[in-house]
Structures are given as C-alpha cells and as structure tokens.
Amino acid sequence: MTTTSPQSRPRQDPVDSSDMTSRLRHHLLCGLPLLLVAGGCGYGPFDNKGYVGPNVIRMAQPRESGLEEALEQDKIKTIVNLRGENAGKDWYDTEFAFAQENDLEFRSVRLSKGRLPTRQQLGDLIEIFKTVEYPLLMHCQSGSDRTGFAAVVYRLVVLDDPLEAALESFSIWYGHIQRRTPLDKLFDAYRDEAAGRSFEKWFQQDYDVARLEEKLDLPPDERTQ
C-alpha cells in the first residue's frame, strides 16, 4: 500500500450526470419517507454510487464486494475514507487490508456532517485531491453528507467548477436533505466572501473555524470547541 507518492494529476473533465434518471427512479422506488429517515438509501443493496467526472467514484460505505467491483470496473488507484481512522472496526480493517493487498493508496480524513471541518481536516482533503493517483474512490457511511461535501470541494479545487454547479453534488439525489448543516453553510460563507478568489485561495487566506462559527451563528452543539 502506498501512503504518499503522488503519481498524476486528474483530467479536468466535466461531471458525468448520465445516471440522474436512474437515480431519480431509485429514490422514487425507495420512497421519500425512507429517504428522510435514513438520510438516503446508501446502505444494503443500494450503494449510493455515483461519479464526479471520470476519475472519482463516490459511494456509501463499500462492502468488500463493492471494493472489488471498483477495482475491477473502475480501476481505482486510491481509496479515501471520510470517516477517519477506525482501527479495530470490521469495515475499516477490511478496507485497509484490501488496499494493502491490491497496492492501493489509502487515505483517511475524519469529517463530521454536524460540524465544520477543522483547518487541518479541510487542508488534508484538498491536499489529497491534488496529489493522489486517480481514479479515486471516496466514501463516508451513507455517501450523502460527508461524501457530498467532499465532492463539492473536489469540483471546486480540481475541476475548477463554479460553486453553483459544484453544489449539484451535494443534493437530495444522493440523499443529502437540505437541512442547512454546517457543511452547507461553509459554502454559503465562501460565496459571501469569495470576492473572485478560488475556493483554495479563500481557504488559505480566510478559513478560520472559530471566526466562521461566529459568522454563521452556529449553535453550541455544532461548534468544534
């Protein structure tokens, strides 16, 4: 397993939205009540799999069979786990071992759907997207909130998409109900403060969690301190 050693920059191609119709059909079949309760049908038979351009696969927590499929069909080179390091948990140990056995780069970033990422966490995510070998598979638990957030960051930093286009990856189509979470509000802050700057430049110059928590008037249970 590799842990650093960037190999190549990803191609900056437009996002593939060809599965939108089938995704809509799936959510209709699942039923909106189930979607509201479960935060998306991203577990079990439905893996909430989608593509962010040709080089990034997004999904819910993959089973080993899902990892095998991603390796065989999508030729992944890197796995990005957005649930953080969880040594001793079956899902984590299986994933880590799979990466080792298949010489894949394995990276972990601990994101929370209920709090802003720390400067270290968001910086690590940006660094991963800019340096790892592609194709890349990224996931959280349901593939909805943390994975949707990361997909937007990828589109802003690597694909250089406009914010409104990038936010299409953070939507009900993948089970993210517009609940005005801190992750949603982070992009509101960027929109308000961008002043023509890229997301990465805004992050480098102005991203301060305590300041943003005050600006966004986040309640105590959504603050990092």
UniProtKB/TrEMBL annotation:
Protein name in UniProt: DSP-PTPase phosphatase fused to NAD+ Kinase domain-containing protein
DSP-PTPase phosphatase fused to NAD+ Kinase domain location: 56-155
Residue span of region Disordered: 1-20
Organism, as annotated: marine sediment metagenome
InterPro entries attached to this UniProt entry: Prot-tyrosine_phosphatase-like, PTP-NADK, Tyr_Pase_AS
Phylogenetic placement of the source organism: unclassified sequences, metagenomes, ecological metagenomes
Pfam families tied to this protein: PTP-NADK (PF22741)
